Amino acid sequence: MKGRRLPTVLALAACALAAAGCGQGTDLSNGPVIGKQGDDQKASVALGFPGFATKNTTRVGGADPVADAAGVALAVFAGKSAGERPRAVALVDASNWQGGIAASVFMSPAIRAPVLLTRGGDLPGATSQALDALDPTGARNAGRAQVIQVGDAAAPNGRRVVQVKGSNPYALARSIDRLQSAAVGKTSDRVMIASAQRPEYAMPAAAWAAKAGDPILYVKRDSIPKETMSALKAHQQPKIYVLGPADAVSDKVLLALRRLGTVRRIAGPSPVTNAIAFARFVDGPFGWGVVDPGHGLVFASAKRPMDAAAAAPLSSSGTYGPLLLLDDAAGLPPTLVQYLLDIQPGYERDPVRGVYNHGWMIGDASAVSVTDQARIDTLLEIVPVNSAAKPSS
Predict the structure, then answer these.
(1) CA distance 120 to 95
(2) Residue 101 in contact with residue 194, Cβ under 8 Å?
(3) What is the pLDDT of residue 67?
């Protein structure tokens, strides 16, 4: 039996989740062919394993963040009934990583809007088809808008649109915070601060914003822009969590922030260790506190900052979980290997009674190699806690 074609509504999800990804310009009009006969010479490879999935990982294999955002949104909102569709979608220009990461907060429960990406004034094919497939219902707390147009992003015709504007990254983040606060009905008593100049240290904030609804505001290395200052004052002495080391956000800025609220820094000396520090961190209701087995994890390249916004819905649904980063070094960073070993699941008698970790890989093999994916799969696998342990019969 020949492989059948999915309807257009589902075609993008299949393509964006495929190991090779869907780059800009891919023709999805008839949908990708799904299914291979067992006697086809390369059937096992064409099915996408292990590039698409291993026993403990799943890849959203976009060749760029545009495709990744579309694939993630369609994976999270897979149904067509009103209760399974997003209330709104946030559109952000693909070149505006600050806006994308800050707009991840719209995925939290008040609005529930995933980020999709545009290219200047154009809607890429992946975004346009995803928007049609998602068919947002209209956010109850955003004026029934179906689309939140962030900054200079393109806006589609025929949809109810609310605009969020800002003349710079600091003003745009403040405007995003205002809309989020209006949707919730109050300002958050927790705020994340990140560098507007070092995206690799800001990326992990997107996952938490999507999960918890805590906003992201930006600073310069040695100063607090007036727009950020104004936004923080509106939160009335919040708990302020600064993400990144001193070479991203200086101690001078921390000192100034202490006049606006209580301040704690969450940091590691590299993007990889910084993300791990945030994954471990907990302060009351704030923070992932992932220091034990039984969690979802999201893996992305520190070189593709907009993938943080694209992947954010995976941290606020399904298995939930923090964003972890890979650098461009050969092999997995030793600090990431050690962290995964620290939270690796184990069992004494029966693995069926254990807990499990699952990893989402964001991007194609140029972002996360298949070799790294296989290694991560091994580190996520539940294992016997002693050599004598074995599955019960």
Answers:
(1) 8
(2) yes
(3) 97
